[in-house]
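During the first year of the project, the team set up a workflow for recording each protein of interest as an amino acid sequence followed immediately by a discrete structure-token representation. This format lets reviewers and collaborators read both layers of information side by side without switching files. As required by the reporting guidelines, we include two representative entries from the current panel. The first entry is reproduced here exactly as it appears in our internal archive.
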Amino acid sequence: MTTVYVKLPHENAVVREIAGTDELQELVGGDYEVVEDDHLEGISLVVNEDARGVEANNFPITSDGFLDWVYGPCVFIKADGRSLTADDLSRINRFLSSKG
């Protein structure tokens, strides 16, 4: 099992345990894309690119210095695929808090 953090638009993020990519795909609602934010080194954000402009926006990210938005569900996971640690969860919470 892998510990991830799931953030839905207009809701607080929650910790989840997943067994693999099928559950990851289910959490984001379809085919997914992996993106990163310049401020969360070592953590990847898994999103559904088809949600762009269709589902509610979730929060802004900065990738390679450019501002972008995450739409729909977002799953935070370690970039190497391992479980998030308590320190990682704290960093993500600070990141999300700064986004308002």
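The second entry, processed by the same pipeline in the following quarter, appears below.
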Amino acid sequence: MKIDGVPYRSVWVDPEDGWSVRIIDQTRLPWAVEILRLTEEKQVAHAIKSMQVRGAPLIGAVAAYGLALALRRDASDAALEGVAAMLGATRPTAINLRWALARMLDALRPVPEARRADAAYAAAAAIAEDDVETCRAIGQHGLPLIEAIAARKTGKPVNILTHCNTGWIATVDFGTALSVIYQAHDAGIPLHVWVDETRPRNQGSALTAWELGKHGVPHTVVADNAGGHLMQHGEVDICLVGTDRVTRQGDVANKIGTYLKALAAHDNNVPFWVALPHSTLDMSVRDGVREIPIEERDAREVLEVTGQSWDGRVQTVRTAAPGSPGLNPAFDVTPARLVTGLITERGRCDATEAGLLGLYPEFLANVAAE
């Protein structure tokens, strides 16, 4: 994707030195585009924890490069296992992180120490390229949903409601749910996106709105609680969201507030579709509400807000009453019964075990073993 006409990905190896890793600091968006240079695994861990990089697919790819950085200094078995465990503990809910590190470990354990660093960079690059192609394919498989709505609304835009950020800066490129939107827009389909602000970190109003604006996609930022009202009045044709983990029965863990959107969509007969790459599937979990660990972040994110003042300064101010405590669960789980369907790189399916196994039959052996 592009920023002001310049193509970018969300993570890349610096071509000048051939080994350090570059990322876009997402805590500085949308007010500034700042590129960070990462040279060691501790910087990578901080970038993931502080949400300088965020989005389930992206943190997996960045963690893979973090392991490669560490192995340049120490390629021993102990370093390989220890750094992977350290990076894997940075965020608990998104399964892509564990998936990427497990893939790295499988690739690197058999490799002699003298060749491990080079092999790690190659394995990390393969994960990144896999994500790019996966997200492109997700957009292609979701596009017919938008085309079908557009065919019924001749001369009127398709109104899409989304939550959080599922675009190219949440992946290596293209995005998941936003990949569908970008490809529909690029195909010339008139559309308009309702962008949930996504409190408390405002990934919608800060990141999704920034992405859509840079790509020329018509959009409007709305308060998180406005979605139900818009659906009641026929202003939403389809909900498109991403996810950080999908269970074998189709439950979906996503940014806090997704569950409430799904309830409103169900009550108003609005299709609720979830876009995901294969790395987001967790077939070891059946009941998402009971089994998925939900990350709880710093309560200050709820009690404070960061924005740009009229004089251009970026400031953080307290919005809650002095002395009031806060609670900050970062995700919630939407039960499969509220999900119209899943959009993957292999196609679309029902949010059911049978639907997922129809697209991913390689999981059948594991399911049968249980």
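For the second entry, the following points were noted during internal review. The chain has two domains: 2-130, 137-369. Residues 113-152 form the longest helix (40 residues). Both points are flagged for discussion at the upcoming steering committee meeting.
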